[in-house]
Amino acid sequence: GENVEQHPSTLSVQEGDSAVIKCTYSDSASNYFPWYKQELGKRPQLIIDIRSNVGEKKDQRIAVTLNKTAKHFSLHITETQPEDSAVYFCAASPHAGKSTFGDGTTLTVKP
Amino acid sequence: GAVVSQHPSWVICKSGTSVKIECRSLDFQATTMFWYRQFPKQSLMLMATSNEGSKATYEQGVEKDKFLINHASLTLSTLTVTSAHPEDSSFYICSASPGRGYTFGSGTRLTVV
Fold it and tell me: Is the pLDDT of residue A96 over 60?
C-alpha cells in the first residue's frame, strides 16, 4: 500500500517568513495530492491540491509543487501570518481511492 | 461547497455501552465514505471504508465486530462503537469526496468512562 512521509513534524517561523513542508510517497499509482489544514479542535480542511499532470499550483500565498519522478511534493506558504498556525497534513491517493495521510506538521507563526 | 455533517460532536458513555455516530453528505451523494480515528497531536488513522449497499472494508488491526459500519443510503454512513472501553476514547471523523479532495465531518469526541 501507499506510505506517505511528512517533514518536518514541527516548524516555527517568524511572521512574514516562508514555510515549506515536504512529503514523499511510495505508490507510483497515486496521482492526487491534497493538503489539509487542521486548526486545534476542528476538522481538517482542504487548502490546495495538485494532480500528477501538473508540476506546480499556486493560490495566493500557498503553492504546491510535485516531482512525480522523485515521488515527492511540497507545500509552500509565503508571507506567513499568525492565523496560518495549525497542523498541516499532506495526503496521496489514486484518483478514485482512499487517501493516505502524512503524520502532520505543526506550524507555529510567531508574531 | 460540499458539506459533511457528523453527529454527535461529542459524547460521553459508560464502559460496556454502545455509541452510534452518524455521517451525512448534505449536498452530494457519496457511495464511499471513510472513517478515521485521530489521537491527540497525531495523524488521521483510516479505520474503514464505508461502501453504500455493501460491506465496509476494514483496515488491518481494526475489529469489524467492535466498530460496526452501516452505509444504507448514498448520504448516510454510521459508525457504532460496540461495548465501548476507555481505550476507545478518541476523536472519530468521517470524510467523503464530492469529486475534488475530501470533505471532512466535524468529528466526534468520544469519551468512555
Answer: no
